[in-house]
Design goal:
The structure holds two protein chains of two kinds.
Chain A (H helix, E strand, L loop, with lengths): L2 H22 L2 E4 L8 H6 L6 E4 L2 E4 L3 E3 L3 E5 L3 E4 L8 E3 L4 E4 L2 E3 L10 E6 L5 E3 L2 E3 L3 E6 L2 E6 L2 E3 L12 E12 L2 E3 L5 E7 L2 E3 L2 E3 L6 E4 L5 E3 L2 E3 L4 E8 L2 E3 L2 E3 L7 E14 L2 E3 L3 E6 L2 E6 L2 E3 L3 E5 L4 E6 L2 E3 L3 E4 L6 E5 L2 E2 L22 H8 L10 H12 L21
Parallel strand pairs in A: 1-2, 2-5, 3-6, 4-7, 5-8, 6-9, 7-10, 8-11, 9-12, 10-13, 11-14, 12-15, 13-16, 14-16, 15-17, 16-18, 16-19, 17-20, 18-21, 19-22, 20-23, 21-24, 22-25, 23-26, 24-27, 25-27, 26-28, 27-29, 27-30, 28-31, 29-32, 30-33, 31-34, 32-35, 33-36, 34-37
Chain B lengths: L1 H12 L1 H20 L4 H29 L1 H8 L5 H30 L6 H27 L3 H29 L6 H10 L1 H12 L7 H12 L1 H28 L3
Helix pairs in contact in B: 1-5, 2-3, 2-5, 3-5, 3-6, 3-7, 3-9, 5-6, 6-7, 6-9, 6-11, 10-11
The chains are: A mainly beta, B mainly alpha.
């Protein structure tokens, strides 16, 4: 048989097998006065492909281990309460497990074990949907898993310190994980990726977490679109990663002496577009970033909009809007190996004689004073003094010290259309 | 007391005080009208206020003392104590200016419901304190220097020193000693200049400390502590009291 005819036949066979197994699937109900009064009992006596349906009520239990493909679903009002007993609430150790519509709460804090509300280990094709997790130490924890989906969950915790709190969604050495539509609050890091490949993070709201909203390292080829990172302790920090795509995200209100909108450390070949940075003490801090394209982003009312250290190379900054920031661009080096073009700068005072929308005078976004502050930090105490304003004015009229090459040769006269 | 009332009436009727009031009113109203009263508005307002108050107080104070020379000489022939005359003159100048500043900034702020934000309150308090400080200095100058032109010139130079030159020197010092931890010395230098002190106080209320990194943290910690607040208040009071005291002594001993 030719290969081309073999594939459809095999697919048909596979579909048939699935149908057959589904025909045998049973729905096992867990309720306060039914045959099964605990989820653990129900799960351990279920067969491959069964559905375990949790009826409304609070079930105080933990250490539920799922070892075969299964659907674990809750009716409205179904709660599994860990009651802070040591261990993970639900461990998934099998492929193709679907957990949905459950409320899970009170996972024990441990300084030794990464206890979680849902822990998926060495598994493929698992999904966690529409769950509500309150005070999960780690809420959803994936390790060495592939092709998993975590969507539309609400994860809330109320711990105060980094030491006794865990991450909202924690992925370790995994591939192709899809995280969408979740609301994550009050955890240590909202989303934490390490050694993740091809992760997709879309449309999540991540706010008021103790440390970072999003934190990833060594996680190549991931994309982060349409998320909102608001008022997280230290903003978003991403490190040591190639091929990152970040589009249409909002980074807002990450304000504090050690807080960033977005910290890029050793990030390369990445694309940031359409993001909005509003009221962050430092909107983007880039250190050792290479070949990054920053376009169509909006930087508004930040302390420092873009802090590009001297070890950033071949970064292109174009068609962005810089509006009302205390410092638009700062750097610690007099040489810049990055390109600025076609941005809108609210502090630009040049003119446009031929009315083509592009200012005729190049714009130097680095102020003399900001360069001074980078080199002599304690001179920051003179911020907003008449003396410094005079100094900046003099430098703007006759640039001598600020980086010659860090210049927008074609600044826009008005805000670019998004 | 009657003397104070007289001087007050004299100054309040003058058009300078009215102009002063109208100016602050226009600037504050303008800034608050076009913006939402966020940090940047406050900083803009602060720049205007801390530039103008010292200038107006020191120039007008010196000028006034010279212009009322005849009046002073006349009063001193009467059986009143010299220190009473001096106090009346001082308060007679300072109070109308403080009031027109407070109203000029306070009324628009009140209209835009920003009057009770900590930033505006700090701005009003430090602004009032600066008026007293620079009126004190002005009175000292006005008494010690007999020549009107020289007095005015010196007053202007002093204003320039406190607003611009001092910060320049501070910057040069921080750059020169950048290899050393300069936070404590810079804080000390800031405390010594009433204008810098007022500026930092306002900046801390609008969250700018977060932009100032490590130095900001040190500054915030210092000025947030009871000791820091006490030291700042002490510095401002001394800046009022010392020129006032010295001026009073010269006034008492002066042979008109």
């Amino acid at each position: 048989m030719a290969l081309s005819t073999m594939i459809p036949t095999m697919m048909l066979a596979a579909t048939l097998m699935v149908l057959v197994s589904m025909a045998n699937a049973e729905t096992i109900k867990v309720s306060k006065n039914g045959r099964f009064t605990s989820v653990r009992q129900a799960v351990s006596s279920s067969q491959r492909g069964d559905v375990v349906l949790v009826e409304p009520g609070v079930f105080i239990e933990s250490n539920i281990v799922i070892k075969h493909p299964l659907e674990l679903r809750g009716r409205k009002g179904a709660v599994i309460d860990g009651n802070n007993t040591p261990g993970t609430l639900i461990s998934v150790e099998s492929d193709s497990v679907l957990i949905s519509d459950l409320e899970l709460r009170n996972v024990a804090v441990s300084y030794v074990d990464d206890n979680a509300a849902i822990k998926i280990i060495n598994s493929k094709h698992c999904e966690v949907l529409r769950c509500r997790i309150l005070n999960g130490f780690f809420a959803i924890y994936l390790s060495n898993s592939e092709h998993c989906r975590v969507a539309d969950n609400i994860l809330k915790a109320d711990k105060d310190f980094e030491m006794n709190s865990g991450n909202g969604i924690h992925c370790w050495t995994s591939k192709d994980v899809y995280v969408s539509g979740n609301i994550i609050e009050g955890h240590r890091d909202g989303i934490y990726f390490e050694f993740m490949n091809r992760g997709t993070v879309v449309g999540n709201t991540i706010r008021n977490n103790i440390r970072y909203g999003l934190h990833f390292m060594f996680s190549d080829s991931c994309s982060y679109n349409k998320n909102r990172f608001i008022h997280n302790g230290a903003g978003v920090a991403v490190m040591f990663t190639h091929y990152v795509q970040m589009m249409d995200n909002t980074f807002a209100n990450n304000w504090g002496p050690t807080s960033y909108g977005l910290l890029l450390k050793e990030i390369s070949d990445s694309h940031l577009s359409g993001n909005v940075f509003d009221r962050n003490s430092i909107a983007i801090h880039a250190e050792g970033a290479a070949r990054i394209l920053l376009e169509h982003n909006v930087f508004r009312n930040n302390g420092y909009a873009l802090r590009l250290l001297g070890n950033c190379v071949e970064t292109t900054v174009r068609d962005n809007t810089f509006e009302g920031n205390s410092f638009d661009v700062t750097t610690n080096s007099v040489n810049s190996q990055n390109t600025f073009i076609n941005n809108y700068w609210s502090s630009y005072v040049g003119y446009d004689l031929n009315k083509d929308g592009i200012g005729d005078v190049p714009f130097h976004p680095v102020r003399l004073y900001s360069l001074l502050v980078e080199q002599v930090p304690s001179s920051v105490i003179l911020m907003h003094t008449p003396f410094v304003n005079i100094l900046d004015l003099a430098e703007r009229v006759l640039p001598t010290v600020t980086p010659e090459t860090l210049v927008d040769s074609k600044p826009r006269m008005s805000v670019p259309k998004q | 007391m009657r003397l104070l009332k007289y001087v007050l009436r004299d100054i309040s009727r003058g058009r300078w005080v009215l102009l002063y009031f109208l100016f602050f009113f226009a600037v504050t109203e303008g800034l608050l009208f076009f913006t939402a009263g966020e940090a940047k508005t406050i900083v803009g307002l602060m720049n205007v206020v801390f530039l103008l108050i010292p200038l107006a107080s020191i120039m007008f104070g010196t000028l006034h003392l010279h212009n009322s020379r005849d009046f002073i000489e006349l009063i001193l022939t009467q059986p009143v104590r010299r220190s009473t005359v001096f106090c009346a003159l001082y308060l007679g100048v300072a109070i109308p200016f403080v009031c027109s500043f407070l109203l000029g900034v306070g009324i628009p702020a009140f209209i835009h419901a920003a009057a009770f934000s900590p930033a505006i309150v700090t701005l009003l308090t430090t602004g009032a304190a600066l008026t007293f400080v620079f009126t004190s200095i002005a009175f000292y100058l006005g008494i010690v220097i007999n020549d009107k032109a020289a007095g005015m010139g010196l007053a202007f130079i002093l204003w320039l020193f406190f607003t611009v030159i001092y910060d320049g020197v501070l910057l040069v010092i921080t750059v020169m000693f950048q290899d050393y931890p300069m936070e404590q010395p810079t804080i000390a230098m800031v405390i010594l200049n009433p204008i810098d002190l007022a500026r930092i106080a306002v900046m801390l209320t609008v969250d700018y400390a977060a932009l100032m990194g490590y130095t900001g943290a040190v500054v915030q910690k210092f000025f947030g502590s009871g000791f820091g607040v006490m030291l700042s208040a002490m510095s401002l009071l001394l800046w009022i009291a010392i020129p006032f005291g010295v001026g009073l002594r010269s006034f008492n001993n002066k042979d008109w």
